[in-house]
Amino acid sequence: MPRDGTPSASSEPDLAWVVPPSLREALARRYGPVLTGAAATEALRALGDFASCGDRVTSDAIRAGCLPRLAIVDFHTLRSEPIDRSAFDGLARSRMVRVRNPPGMLTDRLWQAIGTMWDRGGGLIVVEGEEDLGSLALVAQLPLGATVIYGIPGEGVSFVAVDATAKEHVQQLLGQMERRRVDLGD
């Protein structure tokens, strides 16, 4: 069982949480402060252990001299605009893993990669598909006191303090998703 009591089927790696249309609005809500510019950079520099989800927010944090312990990227922004992959070289040299995760899903493979990578000191998870829901798995699995950052296109960087309230919120969201077997093309 993954951290924090979320059921897993580690013996069946092709399972995923799938977002139903009724949950999309709840997933779009902001759950932490959203900062931009100097305020975002100042907040980044004040963080202890943190993880990032998203290409732009990760590359901006690295450029500001704030290396996340763990980052999840898919080498695209806004689902189509490519990003310079060399921005992530520092994290990739530490440790890198590739994981398939289709849009609108959170696969067990991504879930397990997050836990393993964090426990081993971090690195870079490159998603083939879409990384957006990785932020939920980060909040669920990171220790209390860590922070998860993710980008909100056109708005800024969301900072989510990993605490009991945030973890409970993620568990409620996961509980509203459909668990099903998915074909990851292997």
Summarize the structure.
The chain has one domain.
Structure commentary:
With 186 residues, the protein is an alpha/beta fold. It has one domain. Helix content is 33%, strand content 27%. The chain has 7 helices and 12 strands. The strands form 3 sheets. It has a 7-stranded mixed beta sheet with strand order 2-11-10-3-4-9-7. Strand 10 and strand 11 form a beta hairpin. Helix 5 packs across helix 6 and helix 6 packs across helix 7. The radius of gyration is 15 Å and the shape is globular.
Structural shape: globular
N-to-C terminal Cα separation, in Å?
Answer: 24 Å
- Residues in β-strands, percent: 25-35%
- Which class do the helix and strand fractions yield? alpha/beta
The helix fraction, in percent, is: 25-40%
Number of helices: 7
Q: Work out the number of β strands.
A: 12
Rg calculated over all Cα atoms: 15 Å
List the helices and strands and how they pair.
Layout: E1 15-18, H1 24-28, E2 34-35, H2 37-45, E3 50-53, H3 55-63, E4 70-73, E5 76-77, E6 81-82, H4 89-94, E7 96-101, E8 105-107, H5 108-119, E9 123-129, H6 134-141, E10 147-152, E11 156-161, H7 164-175, E12 178-181
Helix pairs in contact: 5-6, 6-7
